[in-house]
Design the sequence.
């Protein structure tokens, strides 16, 4: 593991612990640095500010909770049921999502879904076509919006209904490639 990765992991762990005990608003970068033992210059090499750290920690925690690689190419629904169920049950994830603004939430999750969709297409479809990028970003944006709506409504919509709403926006061309 590189020094940057080690420092990043220390910062994430420290930030998560501080949010649990202090709450996001009261945490200072100085406090994060003291708790993690990472230098100010290293912090600013990795993160722009506390809000960038929040976004990247949210992405880090989301990826940590669900590994998309353990699902076969035709198990999209199972993957999303697992992801949404874990999100609904995880106090840590809920805490991060509730501290996140719509813009932060949207950007972080759009990145997560974009990476997920691209990696799945590249894994199973050897001739990845760059023309798919716009459609992938559109789907990732829709998934982020649906997820935000679900979270802001305190997870009251059933998981399968959230997934069905997301599937409605997937173009047929991508449904074939993604094996949805």
Sequence:
């Amino acid at each position: 593991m590189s020094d940057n990765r080690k420092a990043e992991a220390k910062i994430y762990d420290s930030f998560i612990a501080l949010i649990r005990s202090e709450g996001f608003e009261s945490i200072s970068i100085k406090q994060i640095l003291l708790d993690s033992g990472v230098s100010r210059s290293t912090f600013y090499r990795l993160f722009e500010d506390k809000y960038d750290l929040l976004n990247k920690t949210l992405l880090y925690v989301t990826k940590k909770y669900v590994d998309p690689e353990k699902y076969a190419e035709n198990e999209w629904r199972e993957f999303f049921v697992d992801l949404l169920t874990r999100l609904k049950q995880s106090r840590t994830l809920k805490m991060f999502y509730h501290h996140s603004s719509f813009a932060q939430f949207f950007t972080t999750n759009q990145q997560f879904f974009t990476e997920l969709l691209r990696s799945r297409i590249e894994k199973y479809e050897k001739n990845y076509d760059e023309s798919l990028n716009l459609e992938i970003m559109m789907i990732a944006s829709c998934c982020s919006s649906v997820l935000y709506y679900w979270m802001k409504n305190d997870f009251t919509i059933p998981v399968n209904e959230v997934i069905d709403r997301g599937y409605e926006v997937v173009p047929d061309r991508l449904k074939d490639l993604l094996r949805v």
